[in-house]
């Protein structure tokens, strides 16, 4: 895992966040997602700079959304330098699921 993913995992492992169970590096179809919450069918991706102009991410996201998954994306910088803002945004997303 990247440093941002390690930090994020340290905040959500063992039901630390909203008492939700998360899995890391979880396989769905042909893809491996960074984090997955089965209870909410929520995928969380922590993206590095290589995802900024990714040609494959849109097709991957569409595939996962067509299976009924919600996807929340955060970039490494936000996780490393604004983790509180990331979790505020995540709480907002969770309230609509």
Please tell me about this protein's structure:
This protein has a four-stranded mixed beta sheet with strand order 1-2-3-4, sandwiched between helices. The relative contact order is 0.19. It has one domain (3-95): VSR Endonuclease (Endonuclease, Chain A). The protein is 40% helix and 26% strand. The chain is α+β, with helices and mostly antiparallel strands and 97 residues long.
Summarize the structure.
Helix content is 40%, strand content 26%. The chain is of the alpha+beta class and 97 residues long.
User: What is the β-strand count?
Assistant: 4
The largest sheet, given as strand count, sense and whether it forms a barrel, is:
4 strands, mixed
Q: What is CATH's topology name?
A: Endonuclease, Chain A
Distance separating the two termini: 27 Å
Keywords:
single chain, 40% helix, alpha+beta, globular, 97 residues, 4 helices, Endonuclease, Chain A, four-stranded mixed β-sheet
Tell me the layout of helices and strands:
Blueprint: H1 3-12, E1 23-28, E2 31-37, E3 42-47, H2 57-66, E4 70-75, H3 76-81, H4 83-95
Parallel strand pairs: 3-4
Antiparallel strand pairs: 1-2, 2-3
